[in-house]
Amino acid sequence: MVTLPSVTLPGSETLPSIGLGTWRMGESASRRAADIAAVRSALDIGYRVIDTAEMYGEGGAETVVGQAIADALRVGTLNRSELFIVSKVYPQNASAAGVAAACERSLKRLGLDHLDAYLLHWRGAVPLAETVAGFESLRDRGRIRHWGVSNFDVDDLEELVGTSGGDRCAVNQIYYSLTQRGPAFDLLPWQAGRALPTMAYSPIDQGALVRSKPLLSLAERRGVTPAQLALAWLVDQPGVMAIPKAANELHQRENLEALAVSLDASDRAALDAAFAPPRRKSALAMI
Ligand code: NDP
Question: Which of 71, 167, 182, 212 falls between 20 and 30 A from 188, CA-CA?
Fold first, then answer.
């Protein structure tokens, strides 16, 4: 039996290594029905992890995700407990009281009574201790199951784990792809040492990687698509999962099927030759 890649959260819950991103969804009323249909098709195909944020479409993406989930739950094709829904709070809303209020607004738009993970979207001016206290209180009240961070480099994580309760962080969502390998130098080893999983965002560089000539030729040699090879490279790494955004159903299928693409040492070496691993520390890239 083939074991598909998964990541393990603190507490030993496992997640499939590919989820769906939703940035750029819910931004316009004229595309609303198409956006809902896109998330619904992803659920029907088998996506179980959905990443969204209060920022995306200023709540519009959460509304779209909520509608698609409600439709799927209504027809009985899926149970809420099978889903892992991630949302993110704006840094300016991340005070202890602000995070509680923002979470309630997100839950209302999503039509859910809890989030599976709630992340600080990026660091802002609010002290981390306040945000952690807000997250922990939401967790104690059952409004979120896990909390985490996004766009945190090693120094940010060091500060976080030095904060009371900061070691309960469940995930760091960062920009990590074949062209953005910087985190492999120090951030991923730091996270591996603490069993803190990585959620790779923009894993195909917002679509640009599928046009990369070296990737195209390596993918052709392996009989897979460039997006599949880019995703397979990510999820081949312990503790790393990816959340490609795809509205197109064919893209969604292709991306999920990347879970079954296994790499060997010669594939990894060919990818290293085309996309050089980092030799020194670089600042964490952000989109
Ligand atoms: P991605 O790297 O996921 O690329 C998305 C683009 O690639 C879309 O235009 C999509 O087209 C296209 N695409 C997807 N699959 C394929 C495929 N198989 N073949 C060809 N083209 C494809 O970029 P995102 O920036 O959207 O990142 C993914 C998610 O990560 C976001 O949606 C968001 O949820 C999260 N994110 C988090 C950030 C943070 O700060 N925490 C920052 C940025 C993103 P189409 O839609 O037409 O299928």
Answer: 212
CATH of the domain at 232: 3.20.20.100
Q: Which domain holds residue 253?
A: 16-274
**4 falls within a domain:** no
pLDDT surpasses 60 at 1 = no
CA 4 to ligand 1 center in whole angstroms: 22
Ligand 1 is surrounded, with C-beta below 6 A, by 21-23, 51, 121, 150-151, 173, 201-207, 210, 227, 243-248, 251, 254-255, 287
Residue 192 Cα to ligand 1 middle (Å) = 25
* Among 47, 137, 65, 71, residue whose Cα is nearest residue 108: 65
> Among 181, 190, 178, 124, which residue's Cα sits nearest to residue 151?
124
Residue 152 lies in a domain: yes
CA-proximal residue: ligand 1, atom 34 (nearest): 21
0.85 surpassed by pTM:
yes
Q: Which atom of ligand 1 is nearest to the CA of 209?
A: 2
Per-residue pLDDT tens digits for 52-70: 999 999 999 999 999 999 9
pLDDT band at residue 4 under the 50/70/90 scheme: confident
Active site includes 56?
yes
Number of domains in the chain: 1
Residue 170 CA, chain-centre distance (Å), reads: 12
Q: If you average pLDDT over every residue of the chain, what do you get?
A: 97
Dist. CA 233–CA 178, nearest whole Å: 8
Q: Which of 201, 240, 254 to mutate to test the pocket of ligand 1 (most atoms within 8 A of CB)?
A: 201
Determine the length of the chain: 287
